[in-house]
């Protein structure tokens, strides 16, 4: 029985990898998509000059930004469209590969927080390196989300559940719900230094 579960888990993981690779490849960088429009607006409103894009996929968010000092995308898939202005690091969102004292103005999870093995761990990791964290995702009523639930073998929680399970030392500054939800989280740690 244990072998069967391991086999099914491996098949699910491979199907998820293939599915996400396809989605990332056909999902263009464009502010016409609500989640990118919201993210770009939040980056401008919050003066995000040093940006960490967690679960970045191809790095589409960085392609639509107009004004930033540093953009680093982090993802487990290696499909990032590289260029001179943006950096990419292959890594899990549950264990970010930055040295202590390295800070970003804002970390963004755009359509990515639910891919985490533990969103509390991922948010705790983002908190180590960010003044603000912006969560933007489509609501779980989308067929895309139900399909991912099947592939991952679990049912996703609602965005309101994220707010209930936030790591200590952060507070929610703003929430927006609907087809696309957005949660702006502020890190209460004020000991930031320039990188």
From TrEMBL:
<feature type="domain" description="Methyltransferase type 11">
    <location>
        <begin position="52"/>
        <end position="131"/>
    </location>
</feature>
<dbReference type="GO" id="GO:0008757">
    <property type="term" value="F:S-adenosylmethionine-dependent methyltransferase activity"/>
</dbReference>
<dbReference type="InterPro" id="IPR029063">
    <property type="entry name" value="SAM-dependent_MTases_sf"/>
</dbReference>
<dbReference type="Pfam" id="PF08241">
    <property type="entry name" value="Methyltransf_11"/>
</dbReference>
<dbReference type="InterPro" id="IPR013216">
    <property type="entry name" value="Methyltransf_11"/>
</dbReference>
<protein>
    <recommendedName>
        <fullName>Methyltransferase type 11 domain-containing protein</fullName>
    </recommendedName>
</protein>
